[in-house]
Fold this protein.
Amino acid sequence: MRYSLGGKQYKKTLGTADEDQALQLAYEIWHEQSFRNKQGLSLDSHPFSEVAEEFIEKVVAEAERDERSKYHPIYWPPIIRRFPIGYFGNRPIETITTADIERYLEWRKTYWTTGPGLQVQKIRCERDDGRIFIRPAPRKVAALSTIKGEMVIIREIFAQAAKWGYCKPIVIPAVKARKKPDTRRPGFSPEEYERLLNKSLERISEPQHAVRLIKAKDGRVWTQSTLTDRVRSDRMRLHAYIELMANSGLRPTEAKNLKWGNILRYRETKDLPQFQQDARLQVHGKSKHGNAVPLHGAIQALRMLWTVFVGEVGREPTDDDPVFADAKGTAILSFSRGLSALLKAADLERDQRGVKRTAYSLRHFYISQMLANNVSIHHVARNTRTSIAMIDKHYAQVNTEQIKDFLRPGEQDLMNEPKLLDDETYDEIALLEKRLAELKAGEMSTKTAEKLSKRYGTQL
């Protein structure tokens, strides 16, 4: 059949030799296309997979123009191709409804446990520096935060498709949890943090030996242990990482991106007396950026990192050098392995709920300590580049023992109030004051002196 709509000619094959059936199909196509034309939709059907790929190209182009986060073209395409395209495939995007999105959500939650992901054994990952590694496929139901993050992508795909005229806007259902999960970040109590630091210092101090086989000319053979400086340096860097994170509240990504050029004031003050040294951090992560004022404990960590860098690389770090660098001056992308080993050695691998601690736990510790010390939540949110709602939801579970003085207002004043005297003590003080007044006035009366003599058994 041939027809004209919107100033264009279209030709479609009906796929039947029966004249009555062909006429019915032609009417159906005509009415459908007329409806799409009136609604301002494209007259050509667009498979979801093609629309999604076009959306990916748009994301990449926008990131190159700095119109969106540079992490979107890295992390979004694999998610889009594995999940939304894997579910909707070549289905015309204009036929997808809110009910279909609801079914997709259920499919996505169990993708790795009972869905298609069950057949996947390993996942190939590529890091920012181009390194490729393989990790086992997860065998767990998708977390609520994961689903919410992916639904942001789904909303953008359908919103952009509507702008392109491929479909009408549809309502994307919100992801809701039937039972509110415990979303608190696993942190440290002050005692646990002190234990972690002590264990870290202990591991730095303990001798790390490498065994070398020695053969003498007379045929004797023995082994000799030598100190491994590399292990000690790695542990010093890990210790500095812990102190910097716990005294600044940085996210792991923000710490990974830190360069010495982002550390303001430190280079100019590092040779001054300790109380005059200072630092400000210019931080940027996946989407957050800003300036941070760290606690003075972070300055000690910076000094340690500076010293290790000079000792291993043989020069002072430049502004372009990473703050966390290995012996060759190359950026360290993650401390997760070393931190996990240290947490295990200190018996702090999990919190009281059984939740595994990570580098994010140091950020939790910083925020909790600031709140426990009565720092304004507005100031804490500003310095950690987050919202008050996020702090209250994930971080603000402060140990009540840490804020007991604030929970008992006026208790210190009660301790300083004068204590009431019993009658005997009061009479004794009054008698002493009376005798003192008599002596100052030069009175010769002995009545008061006799009373005191009876009380103390001495002549006054």
Observations:
- The chain is about 50% helix and 10% strand.
